[in-house]
Write a structure and sequence with these properties.
single chain, 11 helices, 65% helix
């Protein structure tokens, strides 16, 4: 519990815009003890967890890192708004495939809507190139595994195996970062509250993608 709880506890206080001293006083603990909780030095008891949930108006599951939904909802495929169906584009598959499809499609919709509002052609182009490369690689490897004739593709088989595609993805990622760093307009509000308000049907997908990816990265760090 310690790592997820400590990180969430600290971020919620910063988001609320209160000092550690003020938060500690309102939560009924010393500033030193709150500091220990926020840094993962000590693990709190149930009474403090309950108080913190009430103070920051979040569920215990969110506070403990079990879900990215503040009200504690566990996201399943049936709960997710499916942007791919807006024009009759219904993709069929198993429950797991349906869930993953919704998470990816919905999150991509949010990403490109945000980039579109920014109006950065460079960022949009780079993001499209990066994601297109990823999809190309996954689909082409599936095509290969299924015994397809790869002469169908303009890019040679060796281009996929040599790392050229990975290099192109890295270039697109660098161009995307450069476009964002050099952007002179107003960047979007990326807080979970803003995403929930602006994308009520899609923000759960974004939160779930953040959460599951964080978990995978966390496991890699422990190996």
């Amino acid at each position: 519990m310690r790592e997820d709880f400590a990180r969430t506890l600290s971020l919620l206080r910063q988001e609320k815009g209160v000092s550690q001293r003020k938060a500690a006083a309102e939560l009924g603990v010393s500033q030193a003890l709150l500091s220990h909780y926020e840094n993962g030095v000590r693990e709190p008891g149930l009474n403090f967890v309950t108080k913190a949930c009430d103070y920051y108006n979040v569920s215990a599951d969110f506070m403990l890192g079990r879900t990215m939904s503040r009200d504690g909802a566990i996201i399943v495929s049936e709960d997710l708004y499916d942007a791919s169906q807006e024009k009759g584009n219904v993709l069929k598959g198993s429950i797991m495939a349906t869930l993953q499809k919704k998470l990816v499609v919905n999150t991509a919709c949010v990403l490109f809507d945000l980039l579109g509002k920014m109006g950065s052609r460079e960022a949009i182009t780079a993001a499209g190139a990066y994601l297109s490369d990823a999809l190309y690689q996954l689909l082409r490897r599936l095509y290969r595994a299924a015994g397809g004739n790869e002469s169908y593709f303009a890019a040679a088989k060796g281009d996929l195996d040599s790392g050229k595609l990975t290099a192109d993805m890295m270039l697109a990622r660098a161009q995307y970062a450069e476009a964002l760093e050099g952007f002179e307009g107003e960047l979007p509000n990326m807080s979970d509250q803003a995403l929930a308000e602006n994308y009520p049907g899609l923000s759960q997908s974004v939160a779930q993608v953040f959460h599951t990816t964080d978990e995978r990265l966390g496991r890699l760090g422990k190996q």
